Amino acid sequence: MKKQLLTRVLCCLLVAVMMVFTLAACAGDTTPDTPDKPQDPTTPSTDGGKDDPAQPSTPQSPSVDYITQIPVENFEEAYITILCREDKEYEMFTEEDSASLVDQAVYARNERVEELYNVIVETYPVAGSWEEQTTFAQMLSQSVSVGDDAYQIAATHTAYNASLSLQEQYYDLRSLDSIDLSAPWWSQSFNENCTVHGKLFITTGDLSLTMWEGLYAIFFNREMAEDYGVGNLYQMVRDDEWTIEALTEITGGLYTDDGNQTVGPEDTYGLLINRHSMRAFITTCNLPLCERDANGDYQLVHMDADHIDKVVTVYDALYELVYENDGTFDSQLTDGVYTEMQDVFTGGRALFMMGTLENAPVLRASDMMFGILPFPKYDEEQEDYYAHSYDGLSSFGIPASAQDPEMCARILDALSAENKTSVIPAYNEIVLDSRVARDEDSKAMLGIIRDNLYFDFGFVYSDPLKGDSAVKSGPFARFGDELRLQTPSYTSAFAQYEEVYKTNLEKVMDTFAE
């Protein structure tokens, strides 16, 4: 399945030689939108991400075999090489002998797609974290610029993949007949909201394990909740009473100094939070960043006359929660790993911790009893508990250098469909439901989170809106960053960057219109 580097190089040389003779003989053609909810392999500190042997060894059989909805074709042992981030390669490839049941499902997924379509699926992992995005971008752009057909699928960090999608790096997925973007294994809010003028360059869905791993949730210490008499938190969610105001009231005053008279992680708190968690409230409180106009173009509406009052109300409420509430500890960590927060929480020194489902297995490995809740609503009138995923989730595109984009589209579709059939149930049932959620109520809460994942165009394309200027954050990140900087007035802070965002949004719209 996956080839070693030497084999890869030799194959590329052989293909190059064959192409020389082939091109001498003939000329070939080159042709250049609600999300479902998958989840991802996790990496607990105790076992490197392997499943708990005490848990059931076999996930339940899926009720639907989704890949059977896709036409089968014989691609005559064509290579499907997936350019991916090396630290997220597990989404695309795992070894056959892995002890992890989720890894085994990923391996079996690739094997089934290979057999059905007579292809060879392999990965080409490169450095691709947020800090290493230049490396990934260079690998993709070099391949596209020379048209070498080195990669058939690209999978990477959505925040910078959005920028790549505006640089003629990918085919328009809407122009390809061999991918069903309306299928349940693709995120419909992503596809619908990121389609502009009928064009969609990247997508995400069940194939993105990191999309589910990155879902934000609030974890709570069940023993502390009982000791403090906070009531039935699960019922609060069901009764639509789980709001920012309720969270503030519950956590207020829940602070105990450890005796050294210095505020720090050794003390006991009502809530642990950090910058990335603060950003999620943009989605969970339904604060739109961009909306379409009559021409189908997106306009920046985040702080316009129709939305400013609600945005400022939420910002001020969070400012109060974080800085005027003794019970809140604002962690200095901002990298998404949450190590400091996890140590405080698993040490029994916090009632609530905001994080992502990636944190759950680490918590599960501790001795504490914890529950899981969705992020709170803006108020009781808000219709749903909207869910948000970390912007490092993988999104997928078909490189513009791919010589057979319809084949690539078919295999991309098949991989995602098979992920929904086998990999996602393994992750849900074994890593989350069986291994993480220790009570039936938390399982129900996870269902609420999964069912309400939403993607705003302004979130997906936030990074391109900062342009090449000195502005360090796009409009999505701006909200959390200003909270982290303890900025008292979000109105004046956002106003400094609003025109830059609007100008760059116009450029983005022009790119889609070309």
Question: What does it look like?
Answer:
A 5-stranded mixed sheet has the order 8-5-9-4-10. Strands 2-1-3-11 form a 4-stranded mixed sheet. The chain has a two-stranded antiparallel sheet with strand order 6-7. The protein has helices at 5-25, 101-117, 133-146, 158-165, 188-193, 209-213, 222-228, 233-238, 244-251, 275-279, 281-284, 308-323, 339-346, 360-364, 405-434, 440-451, 457-460, 475-484, 490-495, 498-513, and strands spanning 78-85, 119-126, 153-157, 216-221, 269-273, 290-292, 298-300, 328-330, 350-356, 370-373, 394-397. It is globular and about 70 Å long. It is of the alpha/beta class. α2 runs antiparallel to α15 (405-434) and α9 runs parallel beside α12. 50% of the residues are buried. It has 2 domains: 29-212 and 392-437, Periplasmic binding protein-like II (D-Maltodextrin-Binding Protein, domain 2); 216-388 and 476-487, D-Maltodextrin-Binding Protein, domain 2.
